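Follow-up to my earlier ticket, as requested here are the two runs.
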Amino acid sequence: MTEVSRPPEPGSPDAPLVDLDGTLYASGSQVRTMPGAPTDLAPELTDSALAHESGLELKARSQWAYARSRFFRHRLAMGSLVVLIAVLLCGAFAGHIASYSYDAIDLNNINAGPTTTAHHYFGTDQLGRDYFSRVLYGIRTSARVAFFVSILSTILGTLVGSFAGYFGGWLDNLLMRFTDLILTLPPLAVLLVAAARLGNGTINLGLFHLGQEYRVALILALLFWTGIARVVRGLFLSLREKEYVEAAKASGSGDVRIIFRHMLPNSMGPIIVNMTLVTAGAILTESALSFLGFGIKPPTAALGNLIAQGETQMQTQWWLVVFPGLTIVIIVMCINFIGDGLRDALDPTQRRIRA
């Protein structure tokens, strides 16, 4: 009886080998088309099993971890962050860095230009006050105003926008019409009138007494919240239709819990970016008010009133305007570059880091 030879089974040791991209596979074997899917080449091993066998550990990364790594790769934003931190630390520790107090007078060096003599690195003014020390103290004052404005306006805008976008209806119309009313007011005129009416003293809020820098910051915050409110409202109008919000409602979660526990964390990216824009705008606006004489008044040192005090002597004592002005430019540019980096890092559709 004649024995009929059969071809070897696919994947058997006797099957002929096929060269695929430089790797030999048994004839008839199926190549894995999806990562993690078992094949007849390694039917019992998936990607996680292969990683475990090779001694590798797979770690799940959150959205914030990806955003953080993307921000760290943004060279311009990281450089700006380092410079901004250095400038703010100089302002915070002005009492330890400056050789003089902001109101100390040196009668031996009146209208002196920038020099290392007697440690007057930025020169002195017409009263003999060291301008390097006054700029350092001015950074501290302007930073207080900027961060107070950014925090308070962000809180107000987030609350208004989140409730308007989530509940909709008459509440949305009421809050947005009030927002539109604030937007129609001329900002500079309102700021000048409010600063003049509130005076130059402190604001008494029960147990708290706010100095004149916080008075200016409070006025700015009551006008700067509108942009953030409109952004947050648009985000919440989109998020309230998502499946996880419907699931939270079906599970019995209350409206306040849904807003602050589920929807607000998913809106933090645009809110943080807008917060940086408000910070830069607050520094510029406070400097403009102080320059016009309606902001922070002497003897308190602020970058805006330092420029105003040196305006009349600019042609002969240029350092009285240049150094405070450069400080404002550096701070605002750093904040804007950091905002660009945060925008790129927190945008999931951004595929490439631009700087």
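Run two:
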Amino acid sequence: MMSKHKILFASMVMLMLAIGIVTSVRAQTLSDEKIASIFALEKIYLNRAFDTVKKTHKIPRSIEKGFQPITDWTSGYYPGNLWLTYEFTKDKEILEKAKYTTALVEANKHFSTDHDIGFMIYCSYGNGYRLTHDPKYKAVIIEASKTAIKRYNPVVKSIMSWNPDEKRDWKFPVIIDNMMNLELLLNATKFTGDSTYYQVAVQHSNTTMKNQYRADYSCSHVVDYNPANGQMRKRDWNNGNSDPATAAWSRGQSWGLYGFSFMYQYTRKKEYLNQAENIASYILNNPNMPKDMVPYWDYNVPKYPTVKDASAAALLASALMQLATLSPKNGKKYFNAGQKILLSLASSKYLNESGKGIYLLKHATGNYLRKSEVDGGLIYADYYFLEALLKYQKLKGKFN
């Protein structure tokens, strides 16, 4: 049974949510009270999950897949959610849990099975270093970057995402998700002065820009290369729609927008800003974007059921908030679009206001066609939602 203290706290959270909704609907902004209520709700979910994390040393991933070993690609997100919640609340108990769970995933600094080391380490140790400046966290980021560039091929000028696969006829597969891992490398150069990491990030971005994207600035999930001569062999799919010629997996489009936005932020290379703005234009002007701006699992799937992906929306909102600070011409437009997404995600349709379970957002989809984690809670959906809210709170005084 719940204690009187917990019942009172949960009731206060529900009241804060209600007040925030009324205020937000009237002004079409998210009030500070509403944002605070969301982080208070997240604290409930984080604390509930922590008991299992401490007992099993496994990390929450999704409603369907439960808690996973630290080698799962999503293992950095739960520590990241703790860091982001600490950033907002300054709660010392949450800080200690962030430190504890971040330490749990340290071994991933040597993870070289695929490209996911960036998700594992930067979401956890990257946020930890940003908020504490602990030199131990910096050292882990540098070591992880050394591991990450072992998968770089100077002929292809790209980091191999997954390993060769005869069944899929893949020799050197690269996925759009891999753009997200480049921020780890950019910070390694910042920390060490060694430009090797920076150059790998730039070359990978250039290769992705050249081969992953179509004329309309949509992208396929997978591109396969010949590792001997660097030539693109084919575009392919593993998530999103199964037609690699037309598929526009919604989270994949968001990965790309987020990645090219920070590539411009770190390098100030104008081509990356142009790429990010063109991707944003494809997404924001897409005729299949729903009115609430929470996209379906693919932008080009009229023959399939219209299942939403809140993770694609949360990631898109965070990317748009970042791009708003980088684009002199279109910053206000990007902010407004991101704000509209956040208003939708903060509504009862998408926000888990029940206080039950451990996931903040509903209606997130991992991989629709593979019938994996469809229409439920995903740890990374919560991460990018929290990140977007923090960015939004800092920017709304400027743009509203």
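The only thing I checked on run two: The longest strand covers residues 232-236. Let me know what else you need.
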